[in-house]
Amino acid sequence: MMELKAGIFTVAMLAIVLSSPTTAQKSPAPATPVLPPAPALAPAPHHVDLADLLSVAGPFHTFLEYLQKTNVIETFQNQANNTKEGITIFVPKDSAFAALKKTTFANLTQDQLKSLLLYHALPKYYSLAEFNKLSTLNPVATCAGSQYTLNLTYDMGTIQVKSMWSNPKISSSVYSTRPVAVYEVNKVLLPMQIFKSNPPLAPAPAPA
Asked: What are φ and ψ of residue 64, in 5° steps?
């Protein structure tokens, strides 16, 4: 009888030991999920404030004044920063406007003045190197519409922008970083759709 009780006690103790947390086999911890890397953020679009740019370069005060007076500056700004194509602007210096008689621009209607300013831009960004290829596509439509075109020539790095009554050359690159290119020209572009004849020049200044 004593032997039977001892056997039962031994079996009970063995069961307790085997079920003890310290000896029971631990289940493996769940693996931490591996998440894919976060996508890189796209760089912010390059914003160019054309009014600020033209106010410190040049001098382009006359051209900028007309742009602001007609709100064409907003059209150029939208084309520059809110389209994939960008913009290329041909900016005459103040001396180019001064070379023409004052009535040349004073007699224009508001719509004509807007068209004249829009005529000084192409609705796409072009680096200087791209004008060689662009010149083979003449005539090139401007921001003023398909009827307002320019003829471009590229000869050994010299670029000329031909309108009906003027044929200025690009004298310098003011700014050229996609999506905005601004090039200085030494004459105002004068389309035949606005000027039916060659506008008169300003009288020569009297000798000192």
From this structure: -65, -40
**What CA–CA distance (Å, rounded) separates 195 from 198?**
7
**Predicted model pTM:** 0.77
Helix (H, G, I), strand (E, B) or coil at 177: strand
Backbone dihedral angles phi then psi of residue 154, each to the nearest 5 degrees? -130, 115
The CA distance from 125 to 132, in Å, is 14
Give the SS3 label for residue 192: coil
Give φ, ψ of 18 to 5 degrees: -65, -30
Q: For residues 191 and 114, what is the distance between their CA atoms, to the nearest angstrom?
A: 12
Quote the tokens at residue 4.
């039977």
Contact 107, 116 (CB under 8 A): no
Q: Which residues contact 127 (CB under 8 A, 6 or more apart)?
A: 176, 181
pLDDT digits (tens, 9 = 90+) for 45-54: 567 899 999 9
For residues 116 and 124, the answer to whether their CB atoms sit within 8 Å is no
